[in-house]
Amino acid sequence: MAEEKPKTPKVWNTVKPFVNGGASGMLATCVIQPVDMIKVRIQLGQGSGYRVAKNMLAQEGVGAFYQGLSAGLLRQATYTTARLGSFRILTNKATAANDGKPLPLYQKALCGLTAGAIGACFGSPADLALIRMQADATLPEAQRRHYKNAFHALYRIVSDEGVLALWKGAGPTVVRAMALNMGMLASYDQSVEFCKDTLGLSEGATVVGASAVSGFFAAACSLPFDYVKTQIQKMQPDANGKYQYSGSMDCFVKTFKDGGPLKFYTGFPVYCVRIAPHVMMTWIFLNQIQKFEKSIGI
User: Fold this and answer.
1) Residue-by-residue DSSP string for 150-188
2) Distance from C-alpha of 93 to C-alpha of 100, rounded to nearest angstrom
3) Which of 142, 163, 236, 270 has the maximum number of C-beta atoms within 10 A of its C-beta?
């Protein structure tokens, strides 16, 4: 029995980045879900943020702002758990290979890209369920899917469309996640170093400042890919069984022709308001979780 004791902290140290990442992402999602709902409705062409929020409240009630929350939490439990955990594992290994010296920005960006791809592969099914649940109320009654929760959505998708349908739109989802995580993760670590070493800020001010920078770059890098991903995932076949877009590249080309590059930044203010606070709260929650764990010695 005595020989097994050292194994417990080693196992915990391995899984801790994943557990902490998932917990912080889920807590942030509980706070930001209403803004995320408004962002999706704007991208689906229902008007400005104010108009969407007003119509939702008047026509569907307060509960509409939390439609898809179960899918959002499931997404964080898979996507954020994988991306934040793998990012920390990757940066720790890279730092060790660099003789303990801080990593240059390009290496942090590469770690962020890799972590984003890993997280997206795990989180794509829940992300698909979330988009469909959020967009359901915008469809004609005959086309609505009426998913009860995230697990019902996943079950229906598998039974109606097959297992591989869970990864419909996975291509743009992975690319979007890579762009978001490159902006979010690399800029956060770089900003922490700048705030601590150059500005000499306190721990609290460093976390808040670095989180704000991280949130902005995450939004700026990922919105074009998020727009394409949303359009692909919400598609319905027409009367002839054909889809509006044949794939993400077709969606990109048609969108560019119809609206130019700025079309991809439709709803950017709301998207930034949604992404930046979520990123900030994820980092803040993560910092608090780590402080709590340190205080109790785990």
Assistant:
1) HHHHHHHHHHHH-GGGGGTTHHHHHHHHHHHHIIIIIHH
2) 10
3) 270
